[in-house]
Structures are given as C-alpha cells and as structure tokens.
Amino acid sequence: MDKKMDHIGIAVRDLESSIRFYESILMGKLIDRYKSDVSGVESEVAILEVGRDRIELLAPTNNTTSPIARFIKQKGKGVHHIAYRVDDLNKALEELQMQGIRILEGSLRINKHGRRLIYLNPADTEGTIIEYCDYPEQTDL
What we know:
By secondary structure, the protein is of the alpha+beta class. The protein has one domain: 2,3-Dihydroxybiphenyl 1,2-Dioxygenase, domain 1 (Roll). It has 3 helices and 8 strands, in the order βαβββαβαβββ. It has helices at residues 15-24, 67-75, 89-98, and strands at 3-11, 29-36, 43-50, 53-60, 78-86, 109-110, 116-119, 130-134. The protein has an 8-stranded mixed beta sheet. Strand 2 (29-36) and strand 3 (43-50) form a beta hairpin. The longest helix has 10 residues, at 15-24. The protein starts with a strand and ends in a 7-residue tail after the last strand. The mean pLDDT is 93.
C-alpha cells in the first residue's frame, strides 16, 4: 500500500511561543487550532503549514493523564510522531497484522477533521511513534 508523509507531530510545553517561532522564523501559516479533552488525548493542537509540509504542535492540557505530558516528562519536548497517510486505514491495519506489527491499543480515533488515525507500537518501529491515517470523508486538512 502506498504511504506518503502527512505531518510531523511535535510535543511542546508552550504552544503560544512555539506558534510564534514557526510563524516568524520558519514563515509557517497557522491553519487550525483546537483542544481535545478526549481521554487519552488531552492536548491542544496547532496545525501549521511550512512550505508544503504540515506540522502539528501538541501541548498537554492535563499534566497527569495527557500522553503528550508523559512524552515530555520522559523524553523532553521535540518530535513526538511521524504520520503517514494511507489510502485505506483498514487495509493498512490488515497488512500490519500480517507483518506482525502491533498497534497501540486504544489509539484508534477520528479527529475533528474526519482523519482516522492509529499509532503503531514503538516497540515494533525501532522506537519511533508512527501514525497511520486516512481521510475517508474529505481530502482537505
């Protein structure tokens, strides 16, 4: 199955400061910003385009339960995940299962833009958090 880079997720402590950096220094354009209080997500997200690339800045909204807060506590701020767009997430998951690649349980969800996503288990990806996603309802954002 074809895969293409969709975005890079970056864990940050200060969303406002990070947005300013990406806009001022990298000439990025803020295209969306939202908060997700869904259990297991608990983060505020800013989506920026830098050239033709997309960046998601992720700031924890709950320092106890947010996976972004745990990530920052363990590894510090920086690249959290790399997301690849696939044509059909269900088929991609079948392929992963046949290849013995596990997913992170409970990570399958649909974001506010209709993007279906799931995270692969970093124990099977050489330590990198990889997201697979598709956009079954739309092609924008």
